[in-house]
Design a protein that fits this description.
Elements (H helix, E strand, L loop, with lengths): L2 H29 L1 H7 L4 H30 L5 H28 L8 H14 L5
Length: 133
């Protein structure tokens, strides 16, 4: 097996895991989270804000899972660089989406300070795609 094939398989596994988790988390956000937040006695305005924040996290999570899938299919560039970019997209999911999930589930806005780290990681990964020629 060529190194390129192995790296593409690893990225495909990352895409599959991130995609499956994104769907699960999104389903929880749509079906379980509203009642969970309401049962905590949060004001309605806070519940709506937290639901929106969770939705943003889930949406960007799924978008970047699809990006990972596309990256696995790209037959161009160094497999080392492609793998590095893939892990940067995963790190972006963890920091950006993960911090929003934590913020919402704990109702602790301090987790919002982590979110821009994920966004910056994604931006860097997107820009590194230019080097895959």
């Amino acid at each position: 097996m060529k190194a390129t094939d192995a790296s593409q398989r690893k990225i495909l596994v990352l895409a599959a895991v991130c995609g499956a988790l994104g769907v699960l988390i999104g389903a929880f956000g749509a079906h379980g989270l509203p009642n969970l937040l309401a049962d905590r006695g949060l004001p309605e305005a806070t519940v709506l804000k937290r639901l929106d924040q969770f939705d943003v996290g889930a949406r960007y999570h799924l978008i970047h899972a699809v990006v990972l899938l596309a990256l696995a299919a790209l037959p161009i560039g160094s497999h080392v660089l492609r793998t590095r970019i893939a892990w940067m997209f995963v790190a972006g999911i963890l920091f950006f989406s993960g911090s929003l999930y934590l913020l919402v589930l704990t109702n602790q806005p301090k987790f919002g300070a982590i979110t821009p780290i994920g966004g910056a990681t994604w931006i860097a990964a997107w820009l590194l795609l230019v080097r895959l020629r």
